[in-house]
Recover the amino acids of this structure.
């Protein structure tokens, strides 16, 4: 960086002029260096955005599987930008899903597909019960809208099995 | 409060971005730049207003933005360093008909840009008719022609 600065400094022509203006070449030099650094930063942000640092991408997608249930969600969210939490459960006639109220403080539930058979409250959790005919594979979608910014880490429970969900919500 | 923070964040971000992109990015409005500015405007609108499309929200936001601008103008007037940081300093690009290539490369200005400014402002035909070409703080190129009958190098 220093040698680059020196090269730039030597490349810049020094002139004597009669104009009443203050060029401040040292200031210009600093400005160009900042511009170069920021160009790299801009390109890095573009690449990271493509990879999903701000949601919807490889870096953001998260999948957890345990005990016949699979959970899919996005780690990186944006304020008031709807996201989907997907559950796939197989071999159960009844699915009981617990969502902590603390988690729901940060999200507005826009829609649940399919609608639950029953909903009730139990010890600072909302409990959704879904019926599955013949115990086949069931897919449940939660469409959630982030209402807060920052980190949200909570544990959902499905048929007694814990799944830790962690999000970072950008402003 | 949220509205104020939105306004400040977007204002400062755009200020920093356009400052970093260089003076010329705002001065030369080619078709591409025009499209770019339109898209930036559209993208900014959502970030500024959120989901509140009330007249009050818009009016408060405009007031906040004007207020920030007013504060910056005051501060720039008082602190010379801040003024230089935000607005930059002018840069001589041509000295007595000689293009200063090192400076032009860093400032991302080419000979065509300078000749265009020379034609538009003074009807000059040749580089050697220019005494000084200066990249001004607003990104425009100002031309000082050599006296009648004189030519540069």
């Amino acid at each position: 960086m220093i040698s680059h600065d020196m090269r730039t400094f030597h490349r810049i022509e020094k002139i004597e002029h009669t104009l009443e203006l203050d060029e401040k070449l040292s200031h210009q030099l600093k400005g160009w260096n900042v511009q170069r650094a920021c160009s790299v930063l801009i390109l890095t942000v573009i690449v990271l955005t493509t990879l999903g640092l701000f949601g919807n991408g490889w870096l953001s997608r998260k999948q957890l599987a345990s005990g016949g249930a699979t959970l899919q969600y996005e780690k990186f969210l944006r304020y008031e930008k709807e996201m989907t939490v997907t559950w796939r459960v197989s071999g159960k006639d009844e699915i009981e899903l617990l969502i902590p109220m603390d988690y729901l403080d940060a999200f507005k539930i826009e829609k649940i597909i399919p609608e639950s058979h029953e909903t009730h409250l139990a010890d600072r959790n909302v409990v959704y019960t879904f019926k599955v005919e013949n115990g086949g594979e069931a897919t449940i979608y939660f469409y959630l809208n982030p209402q807060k910014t920052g980190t949200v880490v909570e544990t959902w429970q499905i048929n007694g099995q814990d799944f830790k969900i962690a999000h970072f919500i950008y402003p | 409060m949220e509205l104020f923070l939105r306004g400040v964040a977007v204002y400062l971000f755009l200020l920093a971005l356009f400052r970093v992109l260089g003076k010329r990015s705002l001065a030369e409005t080619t078709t591409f730049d025009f499209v770019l500015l339109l898209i930036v405007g559209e993208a900014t609108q959502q970030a500024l207003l959120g989901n509140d499309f009330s007249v009050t929200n818009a009016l408060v936001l405009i007031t906040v933005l004007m207020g920030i601008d007013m504060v910056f103008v005051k501060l720039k007037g008082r602190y010379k360093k801040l003024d230089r940081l935000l607005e930059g300093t002018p840069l001589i690009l041509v000295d007595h008909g000689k293009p200063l290539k090192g400076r032009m490369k860093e400032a991302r200005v080419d000979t065509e840009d300078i000749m265009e400014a020379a034609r538009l402002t003074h009807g000059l035909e040749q580089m050697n008719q220019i005494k000084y070409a200066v990249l001004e703080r607003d990104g425009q190129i100002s031309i000082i022609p050599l006296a009648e009958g004189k030519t540069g190098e």
Notes: Chain A has three helices and eleven strands. The interface with chain B takes residues 8, 11-13, 15, 17, 19, 21-24, 27-28, 31-32, 34-35, 38-39, 42, 80, 171 of chain A (CB under 8 Å). The first helix of chain A runs from residue 2 to 11.
